[in-house]
Amino acid sequence: MLNDCAIIIPVYNEGSVLAEVLQKVATLKCGIICIDDGSADDSAAIIRASKAVLIRHPVNAGQGAALQTGIEYALQFPTCKYFVTFDADGQHSIEDVRNMLSIIKAEKLDVVLGSRFLGSAHKIGNKKKLLLKAAIAFTNAFSKVQLTDTHNGLRVFNRAFAQALDIRMPDMAHASEIIDKLGRGNWQYKEVPVTIQYDAYSRSKGQSMFNSFNILFDLLLQRRSKR
Fold first, then answer.
1. What total of structural domains would you count in the chain?
2. Buried (b) or exposed (e) across 165-198, using 16+ Cβ within 10 A?
3. Per-residue pLDDT tens for 101-149?
4. 155-204, pLDDT tens digit by residue?
5. Is 90 exposed, middle or buried (0-12, 13-18, 19+ CB in 10 A)?
């Protein structure tokens, strides 16, 4: 049984930081759903030892697929009204989640999106910033929304938006796919400032320039298929 909110955490070989992340997330008093996306390390054992629900993908299917699995699991529980996507690498702030949950409830919104460019991104590298800015420009150009941060993994949305989501892009392109869904419906949304704490570990998990071009190519193919 889940509470009125579910924290959905895709996990892929995050064993070195995962226990600390889950300990912090547990203070939110929400249900925690971890999708072990084919990890080869001890991530699954760490999840089992925590208060989180463990769902395992037998092979690595990508973050988009892991999020969709977690959303579908949480939707089985009628008490779950709010869904939070949260990265497993320790870069997100628990206080930001509390604030975003308060905002979505108080303002009766469908989606609240975290923006590091309205807030702060500690120790972000120039290359990372360049890639993010390019992704923002692309997503805004091909969607009906204008955002300051389109690839932030910290999001809160209500049950109606969760039911409408059908994430098909398995890799990091899912972030643009979610924004595309947002632009195609009459959803009420808001961006809020958040803090992203980069360190050597979280930076090592980032996207390469080559993979960013692959994501762009996948998105263009998906858009052609929708015509």
1. 1
2. bebebbbbbbbbbbbbbbbeeebebebbebbbbb
3. 999 999 999 999 999 989 766 556 666 566 666 666 666 666 678 889 9
4. 999 999 999 999 988 776 888 889 989 988 999 999 999 999 876 665 56
5. middle
Locate 50 and state its tokens. 């925590």
Looking up residue 214, the CATH number of its domain turns out to be 3.90.550.10
- 187: tokens are 């959803």
Domain carrying residue 81? 5-226
Tokens 């300990």: give the residue: 23
| CB-side neighbour CA atoms (13 Å) of 52 | 35
- Per-residue CA distances from 186 to 14, 128, 138 (Å): 36, 32, 21
